[in-house]
Amino acid sequence: MAKGVKIALAGEGGQGVQSVAMILTEAAYAMGKEALYIPNFGVEQRGGVSVAFVQIDDEKIGSPKFKTADIVVALSDRAVRRTTMYCDQETLFFYDDNIEDVEEDLPKNSKKVVALPAIKVAKEELHPRVFNVVVMGAVIGATGVVTEEKAKEALESKLGYKFEQNPELREMNFKALQRGMEIVKEVM
Predict the structure, then answer these.
(1) What is the pTM of this model?
(2) How many domains does the chain have?
(3) Per-residue confidence at 2, pLDDT binned at 50, 70, 90?
(4) What's the CATH number where 138 sits?
């Protein structure tokens, strides 16, 4: 990784963007990188837009805040509208292709705007519960911010207790991670 990566992940509460941010941060730490994660929750108690800001770098991170992201991921129509302010001509903007009627809200100034079939892949190939891990795989595939191996270790650390109760969940999460990385190659 030549320079630091700034990531903004946004979705409705319950879509798992905070979990993805924590797992990415943990994987980065395991690789010896500097990493910052700042959660931001909507004012609504339930159903608000949740945004996670993540910075990962090989060198010390100077400020926890950033104006523009290298990659923005929006998982709902409200998240699309909330995150376009973090885009500039260098930003890669991902949104789920399941979101309807957002074309006019998509950023016009981003380097590239990409529709990801994350919800569709999770529902049709895996399980809807691993949708956020598909998204995490897409972020990793697009940025190379952490290795697949370290992401799997971080998933194990975060969800190991669930994996022990149901070993099939481990394989499903690992497959979701791989599919997310593959999806990026297909859509880019």
Answers:
(1) 0.91
(2) 1
(3) very low
(4) 3.40.920.10
